[in-house]
Amino acid sequence: SADVAAGSESGTTLNAAGAARIEARSHNSAVSSTQGIGFGGLSGVGVSFSKSKVDGATRAEVQGPLTAGGNVTVAADGRNVADTTSKSFAASIGVSGAGGAAQAEVTDKADVEALVGSAATITAPGAVLVRANSDNDAKAQSDTGSGGIGSIAGASLLARVGGGTKAELNA
Protein backbone atom coordinates (compact mmCIF):
# COMPACT_ATOMS: atom_id res chain seq x y z
CA SER A 1 0.00 0.00 0.00
CA ALA A 2 1.13 3.53 -0.68
CA ASP A 3 1.72 6.11 2.05
CA VAL A 4 -0.30 9.35 1.86
CA ALA A 5 1.21 12.53 3.34
CA ALA A 6 0.25 16.21 3.36
CA GLY A 7 1.90 19.12 5.15
CA SER A 8 5.14 20.93 5.65
CA GLU A 9 8.61 19.88 6.68
CA SER A 10 10.81 21.65 9.21
CA GLY A 11 12.13 24.91 7.75
CA THR A 12 9.12 25.37 5.46
CA THR A 13 6.81 28.36 6.09
CA LEU A 14 3.11 28.24 5.22
CA ASN A 15 1.03 31.42 4.80
CA ALA A 16 -2.72 31.60 4.13
CA ALA A 17 -4.82 34.76 3.76
CA GLY A 18 -7.87 32.89 5.08
CA ALA A 19 -8.38 29.54 6.76
CA ALA A 20 -5.66 26.90 6.39
CA ARG A 21 -6.43 23.19 5.94
CA ILE A 22 -3.74 20.54 5.81
CA GLU A 23 -5.51 17.25 5.12
CA ALA A 24 -4.44 13.75 4.18
CA ARG A 25 -7.06 11.18 3.17
CA SER A 26 -6.67 7.60 2.05
CA HIS A 27 -8.64 4.44 1.37
CA ASN A 28 -6.28 1.48 1.12
CA SER A 29 -7.85 -1.82 0.17
CA ALA A 30 -6.48 -5.30 -0.52
CA VAL A 31 -8.87 -8.05 -1.62
CA SER A 32 -7.91 -11.59 -2.60
CA SER A 33 -9.66 -14.86 -3.32
CA THR A 34 -8.43 -18.38 -4.18
CA GLN A 35 -10.08 -21.69 -5.02
CA GLY A 36 -8.66 -25.19 -4.90
CA ILE A 37 -10.61 -28.19 -6.21
CA GLY A 38 -9.47 -31.80 -6.36
CA PHE A 39 -11.22 -34.88 -7.72
CA GLY A 40 -9.85 -38.38 -7.95
CA GLY A 41 -10.71 -42.02 -8.31
CA LEU A 42 -9.22 -43.49 -5.14
CA SER A 43 -8.08 -40.21 -3.62
CA GLY A 44 -8.60 -36.48 -4.05
CA VAL A 45 -6.92 -33.42 -2.54
CA GLY A 46 -7.92 -29.74 -2.73
CA VAL A 47 -5.84 -26.97 -1.15
CA SER A 48 -5.96 -23.18 -1.33
CA PHE A 49 -4.26 -20.24 0.43
CA SER A 50 -5.20 -16.57 0.20
CA LYS A 51 -3.58 -13.51 1.80
CA SER A 52 -4.37 -9.77 1.80
CA LYS A 53 -2.22 -7.11 3.47
CA VAL A 54 -2.55 -3.32 3.83
CA ASP A 55 0.32 -1.28 5.27
CA GLY A 56 -0.03 2.29 3.94
CA ALA A 57 0.18 5.17 6.42
CA THR A 58 -1.81 8.42 6.27
CA ARG A 59 -0.20 11.53 7.74
CA ALA A 60 -1.04 15.25 7.86
CA GLU A 61 1.61 17.33 9.57
CA VAL A 62 2.97 20.80 10.19
CA GLN A 63 6.64 20.96 11.20
CA GLY A 64 7.38 24.65 10.55
CA PRO A 65 5.77 28.09 10.92
CA LEU A 66 2.15 28.48 9.73
CA THR A 67 0.32 31.83 9.57
CA ALA A 68 -3.39 31.92 8.70
CA GLY A 69 -6.06 34.60 8.52
CA GLY A 70 -8.72 32.23 9.92
CA ASN A 71 -9.09 28.79 11.45
CA VAL A 72 -6.39 26.12 11.08
CA THR A 73 -7.17 22.43 10.56
CA VAL A 74 -4.62 19.61 10.46
CA ALA A 75 -6.54 16.41 9.71
CA ALA A 76 -5.81 12.83 8.71
CA ASP A 77 -8.55 10.41 7.66
CA GLY A 78 -7.65 6.83 6.77
CA ARG A 79 -9.62 3.72 5.89
CA ASN A 80 -7.77 0.42 5.56
CA VAL A 81 -9.47 -2.82 4.49
CA ALA A 82 -7.90 -6.27 4.08
CA ASP A 83 -10.39 -8.89 2.85
CA THR A 84 -9.53 -12.44 1.80
CA THR A 85 -11.43 -15.61 0.96
CA SER A 86 -10.12 -19.14 0.47
CA LYS A 87 -12.24 -21.99 -0.90
CA SER A 88 -11.22 -25.63 -1.27
CA PHE A 89 -13.03 -28.86 -2.05
CA ALA A 90 -11.97 -32.45 -2.66
CA ALA A 91 -13.93 -35.58 -3.60
CA SER A 92 -13.22 -39.20 -4.51
CA ILE A 93 -14.75 -42.62 -4.18
CA GLY A 94 -11.99 -43.45 -1.67
CA VAL A 95 -10.13 -41.02 0.56
CA SER A 96 -10.20 -37.23 0.15
CA GLY A 97 -8.93 -34.19 1.98
CA ALA A 98 -9.32 -30.43 1.63
CA GLY A 99 -7.58 -27.58 3.35
CA GLY A 100 -7.93 -23.83 3.14
CA ALA A 101 -6.10 -20.94 4.73
CA ALA A 102 -6.94 -17.24 4.69
CA GLN A 103 -4.95 -14.36 6.18
CA ALA A 104 -6.07 -10.71 6.22
CA GLU A 105 -3.95 -8.04 7.89
CA VAL A 106 -3.88 -4.30 8.38
CA THR A 107 -0.29 -4.00 9.62
CA ASP A 108 1.14 -1.78 12.34
CA LYS A 109 2.59 0.44 9.57
CA ALA A 110 -0.94 1.59 8.61
CA ASP A 111 -0.96 4.48 11.08
CA VAL A 112 -3.27 7.49 10.69
CA GLU A 113 -1.69 10.61 12.19
CA ALA A 114 -2.35 14.35 12.39
CA LEU A 115 0.72 16.03 13.88
CA VAL A 116 1.89 19.51 14.79
CA GLY A 117 5.57 19.16 15.64
CA SER A 118 7.53 20.88 18.40
CA ALA A 119 9.32 23.14 15.86
CA ALA A 120 5.97 24.37 14.46
CA THR A 121 4.46 27.73 15.34
CA ILE A 122 0.87 28.49 14.42
CA THR A 123 -0.37 32.07 14.26
CA ALA A 124 -4.11 32.37 13.62
CA PRO A 125 -7.01 34.46 14.95
CA GLY A 126 -9.35 31.46 14.82
CA ALA A 127 -9.46 27.95 16.23
CA VAL A 128 -6.75 25.33 15.72
CA LEU A 129 -8.03 21.79 15.19
CA VAL A 130 -5.77 18.73 15.06
CA ARG A 131 -7.80 15.60 14.20
CA ALA A 132 -7.14 11.98 13.18
CA ASN A 133 -9.81 9.40 12.26
CA SER A 134 -9.25 5.82 11.19
CA ASP A 135 -11.34 2.81 10.25
CA ASN A 136 -9.38 -0.43 9.97
CA ASP A 137 -11.03 -3.74 9.02
CA ALA A 138 -9.59 -7.22 8.39
CA LYS A 139 -11.78 -10.10 7.23
CA ALA A 140 -10.63 -13.68 6.59
CA GLN A 141 -13.02 -16.38 5.38
CA SER A 142 -12.43 -19.98 4.36
CA ASP A 143 -14.91 -22.53 3.02
CA THR A 144 -13.68 -26.13 2.83
CA GLY A 145 -15.33 -29.46 2.19
CA SER A 146 -14.53 -32.99 1.13
CA GLY A 147 -16.45 -36.14 0.31
CA GLY A 148 -15.67 -39.82 -0.03
CA ILE A 149 -15.57 -43.02 2.01
CA GLY A 150 -12.95 -41.38 4.23
CA SER A 151 -12.70 -37.61 4.13
CA ILE A 152 -11.28 -34.72 6.12
CA ALA A 153 -11.42 -30.95 5.74
CA GLY A 154 -9.80 -28.15 7.69
CA ALA A 155 -9.33 -24.40 7.63
CA SER A 156 -6.91 -21.92 9.15
CA LEU A 157 -7.99 -18.29 9.54
CA LEU A 158 -6.15 -15.16 10.66
CA ALA A 159 -7.55 -11.62 10.70
CA ARG A 160 -5.33 -9.01 12.36
CA VAL A 161 -5.66 -5.24 12.67
CA GLY A 162 -2.72 -3.03 13.62
CA GLY A 163 -2.01 0.60 12.94
CA GLY A 164 -2.59 3.38 15.40
CA THR A 165 -4.53 6.62 15.32
CA LYS A 166 -2.89 9.74 16.71
CA ALA A 167 -3.67 13.46 16.82
CA GLU A 168 -0.82 15.33 18.48
CA LEU A 169 -0.05 18.99 19.20
CA ASN A 170 3.55 19.45 20.37
CA ALA A 171 3.67 23.24 20.44
Detail the topology: elements first, then pairings.
Elements (H helix, E strand, L loop, with lengths): L3 E5 L5 E3 L3 E21 L2 E12 L3 E5 L2 E4 L3 E21 L2 E12 L5 E5 L4 E3 L4 E20 L2 E12 L3 E5 L2
Parallel strand pairs: 1-5, 2-6, 3-7, 4-8, 5-9, 6-10, 7-11, 8-12, 9-13
For the structure shown, list the relevant keywords.
171 residues, three-stranded parallel β-sheet, 13 strands
Strand residues, percent: over 45%
Supply the helix-strand structural class.
Answer: mainly beta
Gross morphology is rod-shaped
Main sheet: strand order? 1-5-9-13
The residue fraction in helices comes out at under 10%
- Uncertain parts: none
Distance between the termini: 31 Å
CA radius of gyration: 24 Å
What is the strand tally?
13
* Biggest sheet layout: 4 strands, parallel
pLDDT averaged residue by residue: 93
Total helical elements: 0
The secondary-structure element order is EEEEEEEEEEEEE
What's the short story on this structure?
With 171 residues, the chain is mainly β.
Architecture overview:
The chain has no helices and 13 strands. It has 171 residues and is mainly beta. Strands 1-5-9-13 form a 4-stranded parallel sheet, with no helix packed on it. The mean pLDDT is 93.
